[in-house]
Amino acid sequence: QTIRGNTLTESLRRQMRISRGRLADSVKASFKVTPELLQKVNLNFIARHIYLAEGERFSLSQARLTQQRLLELPMIQLASLNYEVDQESGGLTLIIDLQTAQIYQLKVGAESFTDFDFRTSTNLPVVGASLGLSNKNTFGQSELLELNVGGNFGLYGSQEDASNFQNIFLELGGNIKLSVPQFILPIGRQNNLKLERFHPQTTLSFSLSQENR
Known about the structure:
The protein is α+β, with helices and mostly antiparallel strands.
């Protein structure tokens, strides 16, 4: 369905359950989306990354910047720009085709070492595992939230007797990271809009690890 901000009536909002925070009356661009996507994506946020305005002279550099900024968003997997030219009027219609990425991504890994290592005096066995979960649209504006946990377990022994395990090595840890595609502090929302073309970003991270040697 094609929805234009200046033709979106109150009755249509209620019918499609679109809040004003999702699509404002001042939006100039038009978006062709499925109703399910409207529940996940803030279209005002997408519009701020489009540097080609209706009625203005076309600029190739602005078109390339638009595609670059859209592809930098974690929630966007594919962004292509297509054009339709009206030969009579000389007007150009820009069509931006966006394909969203999978919101959730799960990563699982494992490793093992089976040879004696003289650098660390490590014997058999040593095993490790990791688990990671990411959300590429956490709060509806392409925020990237990453959660990772992992650990290693190993046995240490004598170089003379590899079967004599005397010590245990244990490592456990995890981290959480949130990347927001704008400056949070101390710059306000108004200044963030002016800095959109420079791809402002704020990253908050916390990690904790414990080792028993």
